[in-house]
Design brief:
Structural class: alpha/beta
Strand order of the largest sheet: 6-4-7-2-1-8
Helix content: 40-55%
Number of strands: 8
Order of helices and strands: HHHEEEHEHEEHHHHEHE
Strand content: 15-25%
């Protein structure tokens, strides 16, 4: 019952205030020391440390994240992180079509390049920097567990039908200011959580490591935690 209540609350937030939720999901002050969680499975002896990430914040936040990551690495934890970068191997036409569909859902193109005029104002806040895994101390030995953008779009279309693009979508350049009206924004929750979270929790729960660190956006916690609890994990540090 608690799982259903948590999902209902956040689904309601997403459906009623997508813009504000997405903004807070991406941009926040955050506090690693106050916000991180530690779970333990007494049967398997496994520990999971969940480091809730923001995608745009002050330098101090990411410096604090690096200190935490360095200290956990010294304790022989294995690191797993989110990244929905599109799969390689797609041709330019396929890639462009997926980018247009993602943009029609989010309201902007999420590619972080200097000439991307579609990005919201929150991405241009002074004294804020973009999340940088290198800055935070992740390395090539750490592992991505996530769904690529194109696979998320495919999953949405299998369940809900093909996403429709308007002439405005098709005629607006990849990085131009996005002013098209789209019904696809109703799939925001599906894009950010519906398919990804079950995929992530399944992969994490099948790991054999005893010490696991998850570096994921802070909102993912509320959808992942019920699966961890069901699998026998209990919170030993932090709060729901």
């Amino acid at each position: 019952m608690k799982r259903e209540i948590i999902l209902l609350i956040f689904l309601t937030f997403f459906l009623t205030s997508c813009g504000s939720i997405l903004s807070s999901y991406v941009v926040s002050r955050g506090n690693i020391e106050k916000d991180y969680k530690v779970l333990k499975n007494h049967k398997t002896g496994q520990h999971i440390v969940f480091l809730p990430m923001i995608h745009l914040g002050k330098r101090e936040y990411f410096d604090a994240a690096r200190k935490k990551i360095d200290s956990l690495r010294a304790e022989d934890y294995s690191f797993y992180y989110e990244n929905i970068k599109m799969e390689s191997g797609l041709d330019s036409l396929e890639k462009n079509l997926y980018e247009q569909k993602v943009r029609s859902i989010l309201g902007f193109n999420p590619l972080l390049v200097n000439n991307n005029e579609s990005l919201p104002k929150s991405f241009k806040k002074k004294k804020y920097i973009l999340q940088d895994y290198n800055l935070m101390g992740l390395n090539r030995n750490d592992v991505k567990i996530d769904m690529p953008e194109n696979i998320i779009i495919d999953s949405i279309e299998v369940k809900y039908g093909k996403l429709k693009l308007s002439e405005c979508d098709k005629n607006t350049g990849t990085f131009e200011k996005y002013e098209c009206k789209s019904d696809n924004e109703k799939f925001l929750f599906a894009f950010t959580h519906e398919f990804r979270d079950s995929y992530i929790s399944n992969k994490i729960l099948n790991l054999k490591e005893k010490k696991i660190v998850m570096i994921y956006g802070k909102m993912h916690w509320y959808f992942l935690y019920p699966d961890f609890k069901k699998a026998g994990f209990e919170i030993v540090k932090g709060k729901i």
